[in-house]
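User: Predict the complex.
Assistant: Input components as received:
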Amino acid sequence: MRILAALVAALALVLPAPLAHAAAPPDRLDRVSAALAKDPLYVDMDLADGLGRADRSRIKAAMRRASGTLGLPVYVAVIPNGMEAESYGRAETLLFALRERIGRDGLYVLADARAGLDTEGFGVPRRRVSDYSLFPTSVRQGADRDRPFADLPARVDRLLAIVESSPASPPADPHPPLSVPPIGQEDARPPLEAAFWGPLLTGLLVLGPLLTLLLYGAYLLVTRIPRALRGHARAKPSVRRLHSQAGKELAVFSQELAPDRSYSLRAYDAARILFDEVGPDPDRKSADAALDLVGVIVLVRQGRAALTEDRPAAPCYVNPLHGPSTARRKLGGLNKRPVCAGCARGPWNARLLRVPDGRPHHDVPGRWERGGFGSRRADIPSDVLESLGVT
Amino acid sequence: MSLLLGPVSLAPVPPGASAAHAAAPEPPGRADLLARRLARDPIQITDHAPRTVPPDAAARIRALLARLDVPAYVVVGPGLLPISTIPDRDTLIPLLHDRLRKDGLYIVTDHRGSGEARQYGGSLPAERAWLTARLELPSDAGVVAHVERFVEILTAPDVAKRIEERRSPPPAPPYRDRSAERDRKEMLAMGGGTAAGALLTAAALAAVLVARRRKARR
């Protein structure tokens, strides 16, 4: 048993020692930690003029007081710690290194060449003792930029008082500091290379297909939507749209006329005369012009239907532009009227054909009120020709 | 100068504490401590800057200054000391000379090579030579390179002419924006990938559409 313990002790002595100290040449941490172990206030030679005798005794008094309150030693090192130092300018790195060399828990305080204060608490029974935000800026940095050491004793005193008055908590070790690059390898990290496969595959697999699909979708939108809109009759078509549609459908119809279909011929005549009656530039607000143009379209469609069938079905009463009726339906206060398949079920009010001023078509007195675009009186061409004074 | 120093020397002594202060001596200042060390070894290199001062700096500086054949006292200190309270590289030389009481070439600098040089009891244009060396060297050359250039200037055949025809520092390499270069390469890769992906998808889409149309026609 004793041999085993001796072996373990020997191993513990042998193993870490060469690892920790063989490579490292003596550095400033050795002399600083040795000095701190003798006297817990260490003022470096290069900063010796910053603190006079009275300043040092005041700092020491505060350290003694804090050490008594905390029950742990308080170390204060006044030492330059720039980027060129082994700690790479990082206070916590230096304080951890000093703690390791001294080997005792305690409150470690660093004042650097600008008299800026930093602390690390090792095993200090106070909450947040290693928390940077525990100490206000007025404690961490000197008030006078040009004479930062002037108020250093007062600031150390306040810093230690803050630690003492911090709520008690079980001692916790601070987080180890970030590693610093080894000496001479500060710029050893190779520059970041440009990524290649990531962007390429992102483009190839995601962005490229997305682009094509977007373009194809846009193409479909551009080509399909007007077609869909054309097929779908609007509830309140503009006079201009009606005029152009009537003109187009009339022109198509004129190519298809057959001399042996009298209904078609009469429908064509009525449509042509009515279209001319409306004129080439109808008033945009005119309810009569709108309905007359709807009538032209209905006449054309009825006439074209009559090319192949004997009695074309009456158009939809809700909106004659919907096309031929397939059913009859009671519409509000009106009697049963012929309606298209789309108007046979569901709400119809929103689908009702309205003139530009918003009235429903059956509320506009005139040529179409009585016949209802053929839904009530079957022979539209005769009605129209009669109303136009052509017989 | 006396206007500035007068109030400072009077202010910090509180009336009641003067007796106690007189009893205990003030701790030695930076100049005192440095002078003591210089008396032992005239080349004092700080150990606060192991990242920028090479370990053999003392030996190299000693060898370089030996070529001047004058006693030389060199202090390489840490950078960035608050100069108004602590005598630093620009104010330290007279203090050191006062304490050492030895003539010779004094150089007080930091790990970057700033600071100054001055000779007591000689006619070397040390101040101008050090300034010339600083102006000729890039800012990250390091203290050994500064001493090397300083000695080279002072050992030139015609020192005054050498100082006069100051060499311009080596031109800084053109600025290279690696981040922008990287961005451009990555954007190029992504653009190429996007184009290829778009074309491939378009070809696949066209093939599907053509096949569907053919099927519909049959």
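Chain A has a mean pLDDT of 84.
Let me know if you want any component modeled separately.
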